[in-house]
Protein 1
Amino acid sequence: MNDQTKIVDKVRKLLRLSEAANIHEAENAAAAAQRLIEAHRLSEAVIGDPWSEAADDGEPQPQQPPPVDPHVTRATLGEHGARSPWRWRLAWAVCNHNGCQPWRLGSREGHRTVAYGTETDLAVAAALYAYLEIEIDRLADKHASGRGRAYKGAFRLGAIDSIDDRLEEGTGSAREEARTVAKQRADTGDTTALARVETAIATIDARAGRAVSYMQGRGMAYRRGRSTRVSSAGGYSSGRRVGGSIDLAGGGRLR
């Protein structure tokens, strides 16, 4: 099992263990998974120890970071019978933090949400999407039942936007930790450590751009952005309020 397969398996295991009692717990699990994912991406893109074992001449040799897989492919995130604004919003949130770009396919048989990106990024995004789709739908049934279809749909959108914030926190937390470690290494003489981390972050951020270029190169009328229209202000506010009260430092930590 290679490192990429291992990280995807770790994410799936983490999410399987997290059947949420409420939206806070779902956010905790998603944020913890995102932190794990980003830490792995950074460890792949920058070498923690910049020196290999001494060469024959006794001089240490700089290690080179592993090559970044530039190959863009497509994977299915979910299938559903009708257009689903909340699922599309969820696809945007998950893909935005994992170097992928979503796309919708429709036919008389139903609708399918797919994404473009590297194989590993797609596997991670699909795992997050599958977990969050089930949990958001289940929790909406629990917390917005009896308030009408519009309220329930808006509740889902509000919860997703809060989860989007938590995914951003997960990514940022992993990056700040990497920067902190790099600064500590700089204090001990590794003067390029922080620069390598920043280069790694830029490399990771460029993945989504490659996916967009791939799609545009195949004639896909790709447009950035997402719909923000909601059908119930009260439902949306409730979803945001429920999702926004979580304390990231208080839960969802990897054990």
Protein 2
Amino acid sequence: MEILSTDILVIGGGLAGMVSALEAEKRGIKVLLAGKFAIGTGTNSSLANGVFASANSRFSKEEHLEETLKAGRGLNHLPLVKAMIETAPEAMETLTALGVPLAETKGGYMIDRPTGSSQLAGILLVKALAERLKRSTIQPLRSDCRGRRSSRGLWVPERRETRSGAIEGCSIGDRRCRGDLPEK
């Protein structure tokens, strides 16, 4: 059985997992990225419409707040909504820097699809991030987990901390993973 060592194990091969892994790598952290299927496929991100609400030169933070509260019909948690609105432009800059083709719209941004393209915007989104991952040091791991216990799935039965500070106890396929705890 192959034993892998990492600083961070990111579980989930969609938009959030891929961006998290790439951001951690940018900070010099060794990353393993595990997903149920090939990274970027089989995720909600790949099926998404590729539209992101965010303030820009055509859509103010005030408009974003108003639209979000209206869509939430009073169920929004205002401090979280305000935090999202404040950080959304930076998130769009991060996606652009990672190679995601974004076009500014009245309500934020959308995936900039080539003229005549029939590909889903979500596919273009994850394709750009997957291409960036190929140029990284991040090791993608496919688990083939199909909701049943098998030697090919990702399982974290329990967290075990060794005397050296390593975390052990998850399996991906026929591999065992462990990672050192970050300094506090």
Protein 3
Amino acid sequence: MTIKITARHDGWDEKQDKIVLDTVLKHYSEGGTQIAGYEEAGEKLGRTAGACGFRFNSLLRYKYKKRFEEAKKQRLEWRKAKGRPIRQKAPEGRIGVVTVQQKEQTSEYKQALYAVLDQVEWIAEIETEMETLEKKMKSVELQKEAAKQELAHRIDALTQIKKSSRVND
């Protein structure tokens, strides 16, 4: 399993929300998966699929409920047109063979996973920043050493001038 490391982004703006929303709904309404939409949106934005999925599921699907419902209808039509099976609604309190409680636990697990992925991104960003600062520190140390050598050279030159002026007096 390969983990893709991207730079950490703290805030979301409307343009990024629109990219996530449009990309996920496009995949979903055309018979693809939301996960494929998260991955594509992540690539477009330089974020992880997990971050995009968390943004979509925690805010965008509710904020743009009508668009999400429309995408569901389009997906159903697409599945019918392609002869794909259509998921039937299960009795109250159950989703297929998974209970609502199990679904909620899975949702909590996913949210925790997205939080961990965000932390991994943050750590990667800190490590990159640390490497940059270490390189700058080495450069400054080299400059400091060069300045010390230049100062020593100038002190020697001034000492020589002072000695030669005493001899001339």
